[in-house]
Amino acid sequence: MEALKIEGLSKNFGGLQVLKEVSLSVEAGEYVAIIGPNGAGKTTLLNVITGELSATTGRIYIFGQEITTTPTHRRAHIGLARSFQITRLLPSLGVLDNILLSLHGMRPSRFQMFRPITAYNETLAQAQRLLELIDLWEKRDELVQTMSYGEQRKMEIAISLAAEPKLLLLDEPSAGLAVGEIPAFTNMIKSLAKGTAVFFSAHDMDVVFDLAHRVVVLYYGQIIAQGTPKEIQANPTVKEIYLGSEEGTADAGVS
Fold first, then answer.
1. For the residues of 105-157, what is the DSSP string, one character each?
2. CA–centroid distance for 19 within its chain
3. How far is CA 148 from the centre of its chain?
4. Cα diameter, the chain
5. Structure confidence by residue, pLDDT tens digits, 180-220
6. Is the pLDDT of residue 107 over 80?
7. Residue 242: per-residue pLDDT
8. Which stretches within the chain are classed as H helix?
9. How far is the C-alpha of 31 from the C-alpha of 52, rounded, in Å?
10. For 26-41, how does the pLDDT look when each residue is reduced to its tens digit (9 = 90+)?
11. Which residues lie closer than 8 Å to 141 by C-beta, 6 or more apart?
C-alpha cells in the first residue's frame, strides 16, 4: 500500500517555479531518499507535503486519503510527522518535558490544561520508552540546552515518532553530526521507525545508501532519476549532474 503518493506537484513563488510536475510514491514501510544539489527543491517538497506551503498544482495522498489542502495539524493527526534540518526543541525545558509535551499534544487530553502530569501514567510510560530507545532516559531531567547537538538530533527524531506516525519525513537527518556519530544515528532511525514509511532528504551519500531502499534525484525542481541505490550510483546522468565528475564520484564512494 502507498504511504505517500504525489501526482503532478508544482510549486511557484511568483514567477519562479521551484517544483515542476513532481510525481512519486512511497510504499508502507519503505525508506525513500530524495537527493539533489542545493536549490533543487528538496526542502520545498517536504514543506508542501507537510502543508507549511501550499501546492500550486497537483495532489498529495497519504494512505489513499487526499491531503492536498488539509491543514498541517490535521495531517499530523492522520499519521504524518516530520523532523527539520534545524532542531525545533524547547531549549529551556528539560529532556523529559520536551517529549511529554509532544506526546500530550497528540492526545485528546491536551485540552485539559489543569491536571498534574502524574495523572497521565500512560504518557509518562511512553515518554520513558522513547527516551530509553535513544539512550537518554538517564538524562531526562537535564535541560535541552545543555545537550550535545547529536543528542538533540536524536531527541527530535524521537519527538517526530511520539505520535506513532505512519509516514515520517526527515530533512537532512545527519546535518551537523560528527562523522563518528552518524553510523549510530542511522541505526537508531532504522530501529525507531520499524513499520513506518520514511521519506528523507540528504546530502550525505553514506547516509542515503545506508538507509534508503530507493532514491529519487531532484534537479531544478524536476525528478531526473529514481531507482535503487545501486541503480542511482550507476546512473551516468546523476554522476554528471549531482555527484560530479569521475574524480568527484570516487570521493563520494560512487563507482
1. HTSGGGG--SS-GGG-HHHHHHHHHHHHHTT-GGGTTSBGGGS-HHHHHHHHH
2. 19
3. 20
4. 63
5. 888 888 887 887 667 789 999 988 888 999 999 999 999 99
6. no
7. 62
8. 42-50, 72-77, 95-105, 121-133, 149-160, 182-192, 205-211, 229-234, 236-238, 246-251
9. 22
10. 999 999 999 998 899 9
11. 94, 95, 96
